[in-house]
Here is the input.
Amino acid sequence: MSQLNKQSTIVTALISIFLAMIIGSIAMQVAGYNPFAAYQALFVGSLFQAFDLGETIRTTTPLILTGLAVAIAFRTGLFNIGVEGQMIVAQLASLLVGIKLNLPPVLHMIVAVLVGGIAGAIWGFIPGFLKAVRGVNEVIICIMMNFIALYLSNVLVRNWLSEQGTDSTPKIPESASLRVDFLSEMFDSSRVHLGIIIALIMAFVMYILLWKTKRGYELRAVGYNPSAAEYAGINVKRNIILSMVISGFFAGLAGAGELLGTQGYMAIQSAFTGIGFDGIAVALLGANTPIGVILAALLFGVLTYGSQNMEHVAQVPPELIRVVVAAIIFFVAANISGILLGAVKKKRRAKES
Amino acid sequence: MNAVEMVGITKRFPGIVANDDIHLTVKQGEIHALLGENGAGKSTLMNVLFGLYQPEEGEIKIKNKKVTITGPTVANKLGIGMVHQHFMLVQPFTVTENIILGDERTSSGFIDYKKAEKEIQQLSDQYGLKVDPRAKASEISVGMQQRVEILKTLYRGADILIFDEPTAVLTPQEIEELIEIMRNLIKEGKTIIFITHKLKEIMSVCDRVTVIRRGKVIDTVNVADTDENELAALMVGREVSFEVNKEEAKPGEKVLEVKSLVVEDHRGIHVVDGLELEVRAGEVVGIAGVDGNGQSELIEAITGLMPVKDGLIQLNGKKINILGTRKIIEAGVGHIPEDRHKRGLVLDFSISENMVLQTYYKPPFSKGLIMQYREVDKYATRLIEEYDVRTPSQQTLARSLSGGNQQKAIIAREIDRNPNLLIAAQPTRGLDVGAIEFIHQRIIEHRDKGKAVLLVSFELDEILKLSDRIAVIYEGKIIGWVDPKTTTEEELGLLMAGRSKKEG
Ligand SMILES: Nc1ncnc2c1ncn2[C@@H]1O[C@H](COP(=O)(O)OP(=O)(O)OP(=O)(O)O)[C@@H](O)[C@H]1O
Ligand SMILES: [Mg+2]
Here is the structure.
């Protein structure tokens, strides 16, 4: 039974990706580009050289974590659209630890990562609490929390943290950085960092948490059927809050990784990075499972990083790849593959009889 | 003429053959009953006929013409309509909107609600359905919702109607009405396939009955040539006793004591209004009453699922109405809920996971923070065997069990926890006669272990058979106690209608 389900989600994902790439090529054709050259540039440019592979992994890293964050909330029946904001406060928190605290190398990094995660968790706690206690829709609160985070970070960066005459903060010291030489060297001095290890560990943590622990049993029960959970004496409110806190923690780690591994500083941002929102798509495509999320994040990482190369090599604007991404989401969400498969089966049956 | 002919239908699910070479012939204008144990494959067969499932083998003829039914839309076109056991009405919509949903007839692009309303009113009058086309779906009774579902099929022009266990959720009065409606439908030339576990209903309204056991057809018989005992034996494969063997109760200590209990619903109305009740160890107390007189709220209050406005609930002398559900369960309360899909099961959990819904956090099912799923599976396997829950494995999702087997799983879980107080609300809803016999026996055994049982049921029969004392509930109060050995259905009926004994 579950075997069958697994198969069909994989098939769904593959068909959706395939269809979306066809849509993408039609869009390219219409816009006057050669889709074959474009896709070739995309994949070759993201996977075939050590440096590019490293950069693809770096792009994938936060997507795994935001995908996991969305998936874990979703398993408890919650839609955490606030990942974006949780990432931003986490970046702020990690940055502060990075530039304001003086700690020995490895410890500094660990503290900075953890504080980032905790900041995200706190940002997730607020909508979770309001949902559980006041019954407010978490989606609305999450969206507002995103804007609060964005503008809060801009105010802090401009008025307090930025270096004289610039729009950005100083860089974090080496001791707090997630970059390590052996990784960079392995990938031809790309910016790949320890965040990927954290992300993979967290995927495993999610699996253990949801499917091996008591808490996970409760979280899933609440997600599937809150009335039955209540009947069984499970504290539904506490689990809703907890789910958002855990989700926020995962999102926070994504933010911490971006700051401590990739950017190293913060600047005034005019808009959201979109990594949090992409997490929603990643979770959806990955069917809210840890392995699925990792694979989906990798695909999105390839598409995102590869699209830059595509621009250089085939002169195709990266926006066209966003069309592919959007189409993937559309096909998965609308379960187009299910409809197609059903139609094929019916045809076959009609022919037989 | 044959309205429906199903020839050699085979339908498999992972691990099970739900329909095994089934032949079913339904004549034009008859009411044809499908009878079979829980999980025998009745719903599956009807879902095949309605196009929801595709059979692996076999063919279907409608009015002597061979057809391929690829979906409900095709079924509708062929004149087949189905009323599912779980209604599918859109709650905020009106009756009219619900009925025309998916079959909106437009004139120059607009839906003509006036016309639709008139047509629906006409249909309703024609068949005696007494449906108000303007009422909101969320505000009408279960019985009325079902009649709306029937109207829905009629509006689409169905003349072959499938009713999947329509009476399981109805009160006795509503069942009477439904049977009348079925007779009207036949008079107007319709054909009905009727699934029910209640032999009385088959005897009173059906022409022929096909008995299915474990996916195979056992026999098709004329109702006129058979009786309830024979039908029961055919379907279960052994003699079924309709009597419950029980000794005199030996009531002991007070287990449950409810004093001047008041419970408010979301509108602020006192649905339980100064209720007094007492259940002792070693006895079954039955609560009889018409639906909506506070039974559900009483149970939810005892189990901590609804706040108590006023009054006292004590379990073994300890106040429990402030404890919260988890503590109440730990104090020894078991609860077979009236709505198995809403409360009783997490449908997307496996049977295994469902079996430890209240005990998952205790050893041996968990150690420290970690679940011991191997122990959970072992436990589930034992319960599945003991309570004859028909499922391919303990890993099967609760969702894919037949309705009756879902119910058996819940009962197994609740009784096996060995609670001091077992609250059983409509415990045998949707169960076959064999399973009912078994569950009744289990409830009495539980009593004989010196435990208290509080039974709520709309089946007067069941209340009379199982209870040692019967309390009649009316408008949130217990308005009288009767002795099941001496009372009559008439006396109970009068009390349930709100006439207290003295006024008599
Ligand atoms: N969607 C499904 N997936 C897997 N197994 C299923 C599915 N639907 C039904 N089954 C299995 O097929 C068998 C027949 O089920 P069905 O629902 O037809 O029984 P039924 O005769 O209607 O029983 P009941 O009287 O309890 O409603 C059962 O063993 C059930 O577990
Ligand atoms: Mg059924």
Observations:
- The CA atoms of residues 105 and 111 of chain B lie 6 Å apart.
- Chain B touches chain A through 41 residues (CB under 8 Å).
